[in-house]
Amino acid sequence: PPLCFLNRSFNAHLRLFLVDPLSKHRCTMADESKTSSLEEKCVNTVRILSADQVQAANSGHPGAPMGCAPMAHLLWGSVMNYDPSKPRWANRDRFVLSNGHSCALLYSMLHLTGYDLTLDDLKAFRQLGSRTPGHPENHLTAGVEVSTGPLGQGITNAVGLAIAQSHLAAEYNEDGFSVSDNFTYVICGDGCLQEGISGEASSLAGHLGLGKLVVLYDDNLITIDGSTNLSFTEDVLKRYEAYGWHTQTVSDGNAAAGGLAAAVAAARAV
To answer: How far apart, in Å, are the Cα atoms of 82 and each of 26, 78, 88, 176?
Structure first.
């Protein structure tokens, strides 16, 4: 099956999901009206927790973590299969933060979901010798799958992870017994998709039809130099369709229960 590429517009504030370490990181929501208000408080807490790390360090990037927080909540709180007590479990879902400069968000999610990352670690963000460096390092922090610094590197590594999963499944899965069936999820931004390396890897991924790779593209129309109108006006979704990817757009993340959650569910079903 083809891959899936999700795009969200600049004005979308995507819906969030509660993260409850005591219920295996999945949430059952009985009262949607009450939950909506609670979810909003939770996602805002994650945003502020991420921004506080940057503020305490007087260094880093608060905008991307705040904008991507609802996407991270959806993945970590309702979609992904993982065990923080066994971060190297072979069949875990992989999460790759391709725009590694927004790593305060990843550290917040690892802390909140029960990984070995304390509040003191978050307070030491970007400090010498800390476990919360300015870009994620997979050899340093439990739960970080890929070291992401140069833009485009993360999504490219994610293609490699998906290739490895597909090969493992082809070699060892049998009817009724799946050794490997994990997904790889990516959050990336405009900068990642401007890089040539991401296009090359994405083209290969489309050719191979890596159906367990899902990319969420934070199309926020901004780069370090200013608006993307200055340098990046191509139709990214059409490019990925040409690569052979299944694409969707989440245009209104403010919708109560639809939008992003429905798009991710559709991506998993492709």
So the answer is: 11, 11, 9, 21
Record the tokens describing residue 72, joined without a space. 């991270």
Question: With 0-12 CB in 10 A as exposed, 13-18 as middle and 19+ as buried, what is 16?
Answer: buried
| 8 Å CB contact between 188 and 150 | no
Q: Which two tokens stand for residue 66?
A: 């705040």
Please enumerate in sequence order all residues whose Cβ is within 8 A of that of 269, keeping only pairs 6 or more positions apart, or say none: none
What digits encode the pLDDT tens for the residues 20-53?
222 333 333 344 555 577 778 888 888 999 999 9
How crowded is residue 229: how many other Cβ atoms within 10 Å of its Cβ?
Answer: 10
**8 A C-beta contact, residue 248 and residue 263:** yes
**Half-sphere CA count of 19, side-chain side, radius 13 A:** 26
- Residue 46's contacts (CB-CB under 8 Å, 6 or more residues apart) are 16, 69, 72, 73, 105, 108, 109, 112
The CA-based angle 19-144-132, given to 5 degrees, is 90
| Predicted model pTM | 0.87
